[in-house]
């Protein structure tokens, strides 16, 4: 360097260099000997770790630095004295450095140049060439700048040298042109720029505080841009965000155009074409190996583990996992919304969806959510519980409606399992304070209340989630809820959710309702928190919640015990009655709702005969309420008031049935004038308000029914007053139009219910129930207005007009409608309870309609009995009683043997039929219309969740009745040792086993003929049901010692009784082949198999095959070729049954075949093809052949054997082509028949002809047909048996 150049440098003291070797990278300075990087704890910041590494490698600045002293005092020198030796700006410095570099390169040898290149590539990577090109291009774009001014001195810009070896810290992206009012990104190209000139050997001057100014660029919304976020762990990233490139990129949005609701998706940083070429370009170095890209696993292996092979398992941790091999997991955002898999890897990281193990995918899997829902960080736990809330809401929606929008198809079929897991997560956090506990309550609410459809379950058990109840641990949950409610630390919304949860639990079952009642302090806490609020309410205090009253109604409806326990707490609810809505301190709508629900609660208690004394205690308040209800426009209020009046009138009809007795008297009801006040509710009601009409007519009916018992001359005066008020309305007024509207609406709903979606079906059933209630109340009022209750007494004139023809046709439609197959759950049955009540009331009315014959009335009663639902037991007993009363010996005629009436007639089986209707005497479900008997005897107002037709002494109710319920007396005889009926028979009952069987079969026969007479065959017993009934008669002897029985007085088997045998023969005759050829109505009935028909008796635990095995063994033991006994063995031999039945008879019991002589016309079957097709093969063919060769099969059985043997031999009657193996079997079978069979067998097998798909030809015609097939068979005989046998059989073929 020249002296001028030396003058630029002050005094320099050389420091002692460190003797420590230089490591390739400070990052791996402390790497252990195993070859893996050391673990770095996140508790230290990046800055702290960097400082620690510097200390470890000895690069820290020495503490004691020698002072820098100039050799002579520095004198201020003007820039102009520097001349050309002092570069004036950055371009001069850059040019000077470039020239010096060129001189150094020119003086280097070729080896030195290659060494320098290797060092640069090793430090900066393979893309250094393109990197320099981009720096030079950027510098060229910046060339036309205004020359910088330093102390009023202009410095001319020099040209940039052709070759530049400057390396920028940040590689500029294409299009980084200078933009107005936008700060640029600093890089190495800006190094050396100064705002002021410095004196050599001195520091730049430090500005004082006064000169310091904070300046901002004048930015506009169009100058600030939103970029897609970089990957979570990028290999390289820039320190500041660069401005957007010149070329338009739609993924970069300006704040001026950025949509508020849109979120840019995450994507990799844009790479220029030059960068792509640099990544792909491979530099060849001295050793001839290609250098991999920096940061790749191969680069790390070569640099830090050069001696380890590439396929060594110890370095497999560096290789990235294959994305395609990872399973696609369902992920959710923070609202519980599923994130599609195709965008899970593209969402930005600032959304908070990457706080889990797999940081490359946005969203949380189920495992992530359940894990984080137990986090110790409250905010994180509350957030995850909120995610579970959204997931539970979506799962509940798709459970209720499989066609709902946004359904998560990946979770179909897993809803119940996930519901239990989500509920468990919510339960575990309910005791937490703050937002965690609030979110946990919301999770439980979604899993219990929000999940299931909204059912009006006051009068039915839901029983929708038995598995959820086990997860919930109801007793512990109720205790926990009590504590939460008593602390009053939750917001009002969470308190209301807890109330809703308890209300939902009460709907589940009567057992859960009992737990709620017995939980300590729960009921008082609920009353005090949600009902007994301060009056007048403070500004910030919560108002009463009507859901609490609905809870009390459900609890009272569940059992009489609960209702009695609630009577004491109900006194405080009188506050909602004493203050009518106009004067209530609460909002009028809330006050009306509270009043309505309180009246419903009183009505529920009155259904048990409880708490009716309140009508006397608060008589003045109820008088005011009655006047207000008349003027009110609230339909629910009018319905609730009319329902309460009806219940109290029923209690007063027989005061001995209330609890305690005489709580309300008929004289009090009369003095209060409720009969007239109820009819005043009719004022202002239109025909569209059908529910109000039904309630008013129901209360009026109760008034007239009570007057018939307690009034003068059977209530004649009360009926006259009522008729004068309503007669014109029914004849030509609004009442008549209301009945017409109900008729039309009910028909329309029944017509469309089959097409109604599953999610809307319950609402349709509710509408049917409302319209049926109108018709039921109208018919009940008509019956109450009649002067007598005797059904067969003549009427001079109807009390008022009703559309009798329309009602009759509607009843016929209802009893045969498929609607009943849709009503299987308790909530659905409770919603339409008025429909069977309408049928029962109309059955009473139809006896008074001219033209109704006794047998038609009996047919109506039999159909109505089949359609009655739980709670209609009283209607069922009444219908059964009047039906049996009609079936007298005079009505039946010669069908009834005199011996039956001599032994008491129907009294022999009446206890068994009553038991079929009500099997459990300890449970009494209140009817839809309460009666004086029901208020004393009922134990619950709620229907069971479901009912079963299987005979079981533990059933709550026998309704709806089984199709074979009339044969139930025989079932009890078969189980006489355990039958509860035999344990409770009255002392006057003295019928024998034969008497019970005779009477039961006679009742079945009479009802069967009546139903077929009026084309009601689908209500009659089917073929399989009739066969199984007769089988049970024979099975009465199973396990008996056949000795004289003093208990029954029988000396012989029941089936050998002449009357019993005759009745069974008459019962099965319509189902034989002979009846089918005569077009008997019974033979054309749709049938079910015996395995299904036997379920009501055998249940799921005993298969019918076992029963049939015992039946066949009993036939072998005691039948003595009884024809009916033998014919009952035939139906299970049809080819629709498993082959086991045929193997049992044709194989194991082949010796009984010779006793079964069953003519073709006496075979119990609908079609002979059932035993002929499809053609049998295999082992059973040997059994058929053996029976033919031994001559044990005759009549029908012989035809079956010949058919299957012949079809296995002759190709012309086979139904399909067979293989070589089957052809060999056919030849062997033909040879056995010809060589070992007698003449009849050989002739029948050789000449048998039957064509599938055509009319079945009966013997002997099936052996006498002719055609070209004879020659084909003869040719086959010649091929198989030879010419000699062919000649011997010519007579058979030609005869």
Automatic annotation (TrEMBL):
GO terms for biological process: transcription by RNA polymerase II. Its main location: nucleus. It is found in: Nucleus. Residues 330-395 form the RPAP1 C-terminal domain. Residues 1-90, 227-299 are annotated as: Disordered. It comes from the Eukaryota. InterPro entries: RPAP1/Rba50, RPAP1_C, RPAP1_N, TPR_RPAP1/MINIYO-like. Keywords: Nucleus, Transcription. PANTHER family: RNA POLYMERASE II-ASSOCIATED PROTEIN 1 (PTHR21483:SF18). This is RNA polymerase II-associated protein 1 C-terminal domain-containing protein. It comes from Rhizopogon vesiculosus. The lineage of its organism: Eukaryota, Fungi, Dikarya, Basidiomycota, Agaricomycotina.
